[in-house]
Fold this protein.
Amino acid sequence: MNTMFLAVLLMVSTVTVQAQVKSITFDQLPKTAQNLVNKYYDAKNVSYVTEESEFMKSKEYEVRFHDGVKVEFDAKGDWKEVDGKKKAIPTALIPTSIASHVKKSFPNNEIVKISRSNRKYEVELSNGLDLEFDKQGKFLRIDD
């Protein structure tokens, strides 16, 4: 009896934790995300758009372009990560303090990837170096 109960409990918990990823159209993205793509990229070059729903979490979106560039968005359409796939990402997406620090301290490099969370920004430079900044854009450390 206990074995049966544990098996059912394990099955239910496994099913509820799995994320649901589905393909959607560009027009189904939140307007904020659509605006960012239209401003900094060419929506005609979108390869695909996905929506991820996970139990007890907000939806997330991913836009992938034909050249491999990827932008991830939260449920409101604010970017979470921009990955230029070794190409510079649009400077206007980078907080000014971070862009200034990189320009001053790593003058021959470009930011090719940036992600943000509630606590920090993580940046990857064209030379492969990873940097961490706090939420206000103050440099914290080089991340090995």
Observations:
- The CA atoms of residues 33 and 77 lie 4 Å apart.
- The chain has three helices and nine strands.
- Confidence is low (pLDDT under 50) at residues 4-9.
